[in-house]
Hints:
Blueprint: H1 6-36, H2 46-70, H3 73-99, H4 102-114, H5 118-128, H6 140-152, H7 172-195, H8 197-209
Helix pairs in contact: 1-2, 1-7, 1-8, 2-3, 3-7, 3-8, 4-7
Amino acid sequence: MVCGGGFACSRNALCALNVVYVLVGLLLIGVAAWGKSFGIVSSIHIIGGVIAVGVFLLLIAIVGLIGAIHHHQVMLFFYMVILGLVFLFQLGVSCSCLALNTSREESLFRATWDILSNKTRNEIEVNLNCCGLLNNTNDPVAIRTFQMDYNLCTAMCKDNTTTGHGPSCPKCGEKMLKHSDEALKILGGVGLFFSFTEILGVLLAMRYRNQKDPRANPSAFL
Length: 222
C-alpha cells in the first residue's frame, strides 16, 4: 500500500482499525440485543455487560477516528487509556460468556421463572409457542410447577397434543437454552477475538501520537 510516508501510513492504519472497532461495537450491541429479546434470556446479565462493551467500543472508536484524522494529542492520549480499559473489560466479559455452562443458565432461568406471574408465563409461552420451563429434575416441587404451567398453557402447539400420548409442545426452557447458547458463543467468540486487536490499537496510537505531523507548522510545539 502506498501511503506517502510513515506518518500517513500510521494515520491510515489507525483510521482503518477504528472503523473495524465501530463495526464490532455495532455487532456486539446487535447480537446482545437479539439474545436478550428472547423470553427470559435477559436474566443472563452478562449479556447486558456485552452491550455496555459494545457501546464503549463504539464511542472510543469515534474518538480514535477524530484524533487520528486531526492528530489530536489529547484525544489520542485518552483514546489509548480508555481503549486499554475496554480491552480488559471486554476480555473478561467474553471469557465469562464462553465459560457460562448450561446448568448455570438453567439456574438463572428457574430463578427468574419462579418470580413471574402466571399471566407473564403464559405470554412467554404463547410468543415462543412452548409450554412450561423445564422438566428434567426429580424435584417434586419443580415437577408440580411444570405440570401446572402445562395445564394453564394456551400456546398453539398444545392444540396438536394427541390424546393418550405425551405433550407435543416443546419446553420453553429448552428453546431459551438453545437461543442463549448461540448468543453467548457468538458474543464470546467475537469479543475475545477482537479484544486482542485493541492492544494493536493502543500501540499504533502511541506510535502515531509521537510522530511529527508534516502538515503542521515546523515551529509549532508538538
